[in-house]
Each structure stands twice: as structure tokens, then as C-alpha cells.
Amino acid sequence: MSALGDTWQAIKNSPFTIIGYLTPVELSGRALLRDELKQDGVPTGTIPESCIHEIVEESVRAARLLAEHQRRQVHGAMMNLIQYRSSLIAEVLGFRKPHWRAMMDSDRNEIVSLLSRHGVLIATKNAENT
């Protein structure tokens, strides 16, 4: 998809897009992640700020690589990654029914490990069923 196409998709799909393109990618990424978690049913305060920062840093790093190889804009790629990771978090914590069944186990394991490192309690049942 062209850069113009990516931009249009981003504008259609996110209220943070215009703000996102005018602010540093990490700042808009944190705002987007908080909003996505809320939309996915994760109560505010469940995920510590340190964890949000790490998720966004990893998402930005991956988005830059994707953007470079696919000739996409970083913000659009970052938005997709953050939406995906928010869904994973909601599923792992049991706030959302499994939706990403095609997701790799490594993605689930990475999210469980990341949440655990930041002190987020994960019920054994939720971690095993994800």
C-alpha cells in the first residue's frame, strides 16, 4: 500500500491519527495504547505505566522495521501493532474472549512475560488458556 493509502487508512481508523502525526510517535503510541486497552475492557490502572512504556517502545521499534521494509509510515504500522497487543493483553487477562486464535504462541508468551515482569497478576487459568 502506498504512503497515501496508509495515511487514509489510519485517518479512517483512529481518532489519534491526526494528533499522532503531529506528536512524537512514542507519546501518541502511549495515548493510543491506553485508549485501546480501555476499548478492549481492561480497567484503567490495570497496566502500570512502566509496562505501557515498554509495550510502546517495542511497538515503535518493530513499526520502524516494518515501515522500512514495506515502505509504510511508522505511525500506521505502530497503530496496528498496538491494537494487536492490546487485544492480546485483554485476552490474557480474561477481559476479552479469545479472538486471535491464529496468533502465535510466542506472541502470547511474550505478553505474559512482559506483564509478569511489571507485576501484573495473571490468573493461571487465563495464562494456560491463552
The shape is globular
Percentage of β-strand residues: under 5%
SS class: mainly alpha
How many alpha or pi helices?
A: 7
Could you give a short account of the major beta sheet? none
Secondary-structure element series: HHHHHHH
What average pLDDT do the residues reach?
81
Question: Which radius of gyration do the C-alpha atoms yield?
Answer: 15 Å
Q: How many runs of DSSP E, i.e. beta strands? A: 0
Oligomer: single chain
Helix content: over 70%
For the record, give the distance between the C-alpha atoms at the N and C termini, rounded to a whole number.
32 Å
Return residue spans where pLDDT drops below 50 for at least 5 consecutive residues. Answer: 125-130
Textual characterization of the structure:
Helices cover 71% and strands 0% of the residues. It has 130 residues and is mainly alpha-helical. The longest helix has 22 residues. It starts with a helix and ends with a helix. The C terminus is likely disordered.
Tags for this model:
130 residues; disordered C terminus; globular
Present the secondary structure layout.
Blueprint: H1 3-13, H2 17-22, H3 25-39, H4 49-70, H5 74-92, H6 105-117, H7 124-129
Helix pairs in contact: 3-4, 3-5, 4-5, 5-6
Short description:
With 130 residues, this protein is an all-alpha fold.
